[in-house]
Design a protein that fits this description.
Length: 412
């Protein structure tokens, strides 16, 4: 089987829109959570979010394009452009365009567009709906627009599995390259659902934190956690077959070696308390990588800061790793980025790759109060320098969708 490596990355997040700024903030435990100032929160309990207020789409597209694209597409296009620049050279000169795929997930798609056009429909009638309404809001359009802009004509689609969407995208891209269907792929995820309407929906199902303190809002594995923090942005990775990447002199961040995917078959939002589904997912990723559980050095946890998720994920890790679970490093970087929903897995995959490259395990920021049911090594006292070789990145989505990617430190 062919080896698959990461040769370019792009990020648009509340903790940085350039890779160096983003990684510096993650390493130093700086979060991007603040009190919401983009809509009125006086009549809802949601008070904080991780808002990407520094993003300027005009750096990446013409003004006339903005009315045709939802913010989730703008994030994805911008992150993809950065990733392609980061990977060096021109991929179209290195590969047959039908051998370069674009697989980009989104959990929700164009929520701001849906809301704006529905309001227009109510106030002005059906004839005033924009001709760009449908293409702007459908979730697959980020992948479609990246393909149109780049000319890449390989496999092109959008996994939609809620918070696991972009981990499934990474896994599918990895397998397509490893198994010979593609030579390279632009992959990842994007999300832009920070609206009052969406926040109210998540709030009413008791998924979001009620904290109004940004420093104590996203606190995975902490006993005082009470819900996740909504976030927005995109993470895009360029994956390539190793020999092709080496031939064109590409730099390499890390290698992807395993992918696991399972379903809980249990509940539309709650995780199965037995943790069987995610445990099998972790196990399948490890098996796909051809390693044993005791070779895993680090886990970038799904770690949402909700009560049921953090307990279930902890149990799943114990089921798979046994006594080794207490020895590895584990952290949730959602403590800094917030929960980026369909973009979460891709951004966390980028973090995991950088952790392997630099030998730095990022922290779980803001953690204070231990929980007896969450008793693993969650790296709560700042980043740790460590020689790590294999790492898992987990994503668990509403509907019982589980996806895990196994990354490896690149060694020629």
């Amino acid at each position: 089987m062919r080896r698959v490596v990461i040769t370019g990355v792009g990020v648009k997040t509340p903790v940085g829109n350039q890779l160096d700024v983003f990684w510096d903030n993650i390493k130093n435990g700086r979060h991007g959570i603040k009190r919401i100032d983009t809509f009125d929160t006086s009549d809802i309990e949601v008070k904080v979010a991780a808002i990407n207020s520094d993003f300027d789409p005009l750096e990446y597209m013409e003004k006339k394009e903005l009315r045709r694209t939802d913010l989730f597409c703008q994030f994805a296009i911008a992150a993809a452009q950065d990733a392609l620049q980061d990977c060096g050279g021109d991929l179209k000169e290195s590969y047959d365009p039908y051998r370069i795929g674009v697989i980009v997930g989104s959990g929700i798609g164009g929520m701001p567009t849906i809301e704006a056009e529905h309001q227009k429909f109510l106030e002005k009638g059906p004839k005033r709906i924009s001709v760009f309404f449908v293409p702007a809001m459908i979730s697959n359009m980020a992948a479609g627009m990246i393909s149109i802009r780049t000319g890449f004509k390989g496999a092109n689609y959008c996994p939609v599995t809620a918070c696991a969407s972009s981990n499934h995208a990474l896994g599918e891209a990895f397998h397509k390259i490893r198994d010979g269907y593609l030579d390279a792929c632009v992959t990842g995820g994007t999300e832009a659902s920070l609206t009052k309407f969406a926040a109210a929906g998540f709030m009413n199902m008791t998924a979001l934190t009620k904290s109004d303190d940004p420093d104590r809002a996203s606190i995975p594995f902490d006993k005082e956690r009470n819900g996740f923090v909504m976030s927005e942005g995109a993470g895009i990775l360029i994956l390539e077959e190793l020999e092709h990447a080496k031939a064109r002199g590409a730099k390499i961040y890390a290698e992807i070696v395993g992918y696991g995917a399972t379903g809980d078959a249990y509940h539309i939002t709650a995780p199965d308390p037995s943790a069987e589904g995610p445990a099998k997912c972790f196990e399948f990723a490890i098996q796909d990588a051809g390693i044993t559980p005791d070779q895993v050095d680090y886990i970038n946890a799904h770690g949402t800061s909700t009560g049921p998720n953090d307990v279930t994920e902890t149990l799943a890790v114990k089921k798979v790793l046994g006594d080794h679970a207490k020895e590895i490093y584990m952290s949730s970087t959602k403590s800094m980025t917030g929960h980026m929903l369909g973009a979460a897995g891709a951004v966390e995959g980028i973090i995991t790759s950088l952790a392997l490259r630099d030998g730095i395990v990022p922290p779980t920021a803001g953690y204070r109060v231990p929980d007896e049911e969450c008793d693993l090594n969650y790296v709560t006292n700042g980043a740790v320098k460590a020689d790590i070789h294999y790492a898992l990145s987990n994503s668990l989505g509403f509907g019982g969708h589980n996806a895990t990617i196994c990354f490896k430190k690149y060694e020629a």
